[in-house]
Amino acid sequence: MAPNNEGVENLAYQTVHNPRQGGYKPTLFVFMLMLLDNIGFVANMVSLVLYFLNVMRFDLSGSANTTTNFLGTTFLLTLVGGLVSDSYMNRLNTCLLFGGIELLGYLLIIIQSHYAKLQPEACGEYSCVKGTKALLFYASIYLLALGGGGIRGSVPSLGADQFDENDPKESKHIASFFNWFLFFVSGGACIGVTVVVWVSTNKGWDKSYIISIVCTFIGLVFVALGKPFYRVRVPGESAFLNVLQVLVVAAKNRNLQLPQNSGELYELRSSPEHASCREHIRHSKQFRLLDKAAILDEGTKPDKWKVCTLTQVEEVKILTRMIPILLSTTFMNTCLAQLQTFSIQQGTLMDTKVGSFDVPAASIPIIPLLFMCILVPIYEVFFVPFFRKLTGHPNGISHLQRVGVGLVLSAISMGIAGLVEVKRRNEFVNHNKRINLFWLSYQYGIFGIADMFTFVGLMEFFYSEAPKGMKSLSTSFSWLSLSIGYYLSTIFVEIINSVTGKYTASKRGWLEGLDMNKNHVELFYWFLAIISILNLGNYVYWANWYKYKRDVPVEVIDQPMLTGSPINLSSPSGWSPLIVATKQGEGTD
C-alpha cells in the first residue's frame, strides 16, 4: 500500500468523537426517521400484493411473485447502501441520498395510481402490464426499492455508531439500541398497516402513497436535523475492493507455500501519528487458503494488488464465517413472505367485520406488530436483566441463541397457518360461511414474536462481529437474509406449481389460478414448516461451529513499533513484516 494512503486507511476505522456528541440523544433522530419512513414502507409490504392484483392486473401467483421480487430487491439493495456508507460517504449523507431516490419512486407511483389511463386493462394472464405502462410501473417500484434499501443499509450503523464499542460503559447500550430500533420500526409499521392501508382500501391508492411520501420526507428532515449531535464515522477505502483484493491475491498466490510461522505473513505498521488508531486482528487457523494473500515473495514490491495485510485477510475471514449463519436464517424470511402474500389473500375470503367496522385484510399484520411493540420493552426491561443474572451474559442470551429461538417459533407459525387455512376453506366450501379474520392472528402473533428474537439478534450479531471498516456492509447482511428469503419464496411458488401441476389428479398446481378455495395453500404452509424444522438443525450446526470475534483476540497498536521476525525484505515506509502482538504467554501458530 502506498505510504500516502496510510493515514486515510487508519481514519477509515475511526469515529470522530466530541463530548457533546453521541449517546442516546442522536439516536432519537434515527428512530424518528425509521418510524416515519416505515409508515409507508411496511404499508407497501403488506398491501402491494393487492395493488398488483386489483390495479396492475396480475393474477394470484403473479401478484405474489412480483411482491416478493420487489421486497427481495429492496433488501438486496441494502448492500449498496452499506457499501456507500462504509466507503464513499458518511452514514447521514448516504441516508439522505437514498431518501431522495425513494421520494422520486413514490412520486412516479402516485402518478400511475392516480390516472386510470396509465394502468393496464384486465387480460386474465400472469401479467397484463406492457409497453410504457410497464416502464413507468417498474421504474417506480424499483426506485422505491433502491431508495428504501439504501436507507436501511446505512441507518442502523448510523445509530449504533453513537456508542463506542471499545468503551465498556457505552458498548452495553448497542444491544439496547437495536431493541429500541425494532420498537420504532414496529411503531411506524403499526400506523402503516392500519391508517395507510385503510386509506388505500377506502379512499384510493394514490392518496395512500401521498401519505407515504409526506411521512418519508418529514423523516428525512428529522434525521438531517440531528447532524450536530452525531458522531460521524469517516468513510474509508472500499470494503468491496478490500475483499476483492484478498480473493484476487490469494488466487494469484495459490501455488505458494504457507510459512510455518504466521509471523512471516505481512502486516501494516502504523505511522507514529496514527499508531493508536489501527486495529490489528490476531491470526486465526480457519480458512488458511486465504492466508496466501498475505505472502510476499522476497524482492517483490509490496503493492496493493500483490500482497494484503494479515488484518485485511482476517477481516475477510470474519465475513466468511458469517455466511453460513446468514444462509441458515434466510428460510425464516421465506416463511415471512407468505404472511405478506398468501395470508393477505386468505384474509380477503374471511369475515373482516369487527362490529360495524370493516377491517382491511392487509391490516391483519397489525397483530404481530402490536406483539413486538409490547414485547420489546418487556424484553429490554425485564427479560435481559433476569437472564443476565442467570447466564452472566451482558445481553441475557447470546445473539445466536436469540436467533435460534426465532427459528423455532417460525416453524410453529407455518404449521398453525396450514391448520387455519384448512378450517377457513372447510367452512367456506362446505358451510358457505366465512370465519373471522382474526383466526389469522395465531400465525401472525407467533411469527411476530419470532421476528422480535431473530431480527434484532441478527442485526446486533452482524454489527458487533464486523470489522470496523465494514460495519454498514455487515449489518446489511441481516436485510440480505430477508432478500434471499423473498427470492426463495418466488422460486418455491414456481417449483411447487410446476411439480404439483404434473402429479396431482386435477393437473392443477397447489397455488395456481385466482380461486384460493380450489388451491392447497395449507399443503404449501406445511411444506414450509417441514423445511423450517430441517433448516433449524442446519442452523444449530453452524451456530455451534461459529467462533465469535472475541475468541479471536483483537489488539489495538499503542506504539509505533511492534516486535516480530521479519523476512529478509526491505520494506517501504508504512509497511513492516511482523508478528501481531499477542497476549503474554501466547505464541504463534
Radius of gyration, taken over Cα atoms and rounded to an integer in Å: 26 Å
Provide the structure class.
mainly alpha
Low-confidence stretches: 1-15, 270-277, 553-589
Instruction: Please tally the helical runs, counting DSSP H or I stretches of 4 or more residues.
Output: 17
Rounded mean pLDDT score: 80
Largest sheet: 2 strands, antiparallel
Question: How would you describe the overall organization of this protein?
Answer:
The protein has 589 residues and is mostly helical. 62% of the residues lie in helices and 3% in strands. It is built from 17 helices and 8 strands. It has helices at residues 6-11, 24-54, 60-76, 78-87, 91-114, 131-160, 168-202, 205-225, 239-252, 310-328, 330-339, 342-347, 366-391, 399-431, 441-465, 471-503, 521-545, and strands at residues 15-16, 232-233, 266-268, 279-281, 353-354, 357-358, 554-556, 575-577. It has a two-stranded antiparallel sheet with strand order 1-2. It has a two-stranded antiparallel ribbon with strand order 3-8. A two-stranded antiparallel ribbon has the order 4-7. A hairpin with a 2-residue loop joins β5 and β6 (357-358). The radius of gyration is 26 Å and the shape is globular. Mean pLDDT is 80; it is low at 1-15, 270-277 and 553-589.
